Structure formats: C-alpha cells, structure tokens
Amino acid sequence: MGLQPRSFIEISPELAESIGVTTGGYVSVRSPRNEIQVRALVTPRLRIGVIEGRQASIAGRFVCSGYKGIVCDPITNDLSPADMAGDGLIPSSKSFVVKIDKPDMNKVEKFNEYPVEYPAGMSEPIPDTPWAAQPEGRN
Fold it and tell me: What is the DSSP letter of 13?
C-alpha cells in the first residue's frame, strides 16, 4: 500500500493518444456490468494488436487491495463477468473486453481508504494445513 497507494490501468501509447490522456490522468473503463474511473499509466509494454482482423489494445489493471489491507479505489472485479470459480469463490475470468475512453470527472471517487472487514473464520488457523496456506501467511 505504501509503495503503490492508488490503483491504475496500463494502456498503450496509441490508445492514450487516441483518447487524449497522459500518465496520471483519469480514464473511464466500462464493461456491460459497470463503469469505473481510474488513473492511467501509459507504457510501451502494451501495444495495439489484431484480434479477428480488427485492431485492439491490451490493458493491464493493477488492483490496490489485499487479504488484510485497505481498499482505496474502484474494484476491477466490478467490471468482470459475474461467473465464479467454484473452488475459490472468486471471479473466474481474468481477461475480458472493456471500453476505455475519456473519463467522466463527476464520477471520479475521492480517495477514501477503509479497512477490509473479513469474517472471523478467515483469520483462524486451519487444522492440518501448511503455514503458507494459513490465513496469517497470506499477508
């Protein structure tokens, strides 16, 4: 949290130029489920490619949260399809299509960190389980 206090989305220079954003500026990231406003990191690591004959950009989203920590920004899982992995009860899709565009600055959330609340059962030791898989080992 101290090294990366805010989440961001990495986008290609071509995409950034097309929507008129630079590193540190906000973008709108929209899916059929939700829309979030988040800061951009323009990087040449991500480029425009071709998918099924059409140009498409790959974006990478850094999420600033953790098992025992603070959630301070919009959550990527709010954008992802609502299908859950049966073994972990987390969204099973880690890549999906979104529309990245100019932001609606009226929708940008103010920095408001709050501690994550977990049920007591998530912090109690699990019998016959190696330390690394114990809740306290997930920090």
Answer: H
For 6, 40, 60, 73, 74, the CA distances from 64, given in Å and listed in that order, are 6, 14, 13, 7, 9
Find, among 30, 45, 38, 46, the residue nearest to 9 by Cα. Answer: 38
pTM over 0.70: no
Q: Is the dihedral of CA 72, 31, 40, 43 positive or negative?
A: positive
Q: Cα dist. 15→1, 3, 29, 39, 121 in Å?
A: 28, 26, 13, 14, 44
pLDDT by residue (tens digit) across 39-95?
A: 899 999 887 888 889 888 878 776 655 445 556 667 776 777 767 666 666 666 667
Question: At a CB cut-off of 8 Å and minimum separation 6, what does 9 contact?
Answer: 27, 29, 38, 39, 40, 41, 59, 60, 61, 62, 100
Angle at 34 between CA 27 and CA 71, to 5 degrees: 75
Q: Please return the burial class of 22, using the count of CB atoms within 10 Å of its CB with bins 0-12, 13-18 and 19+.
A: exposed
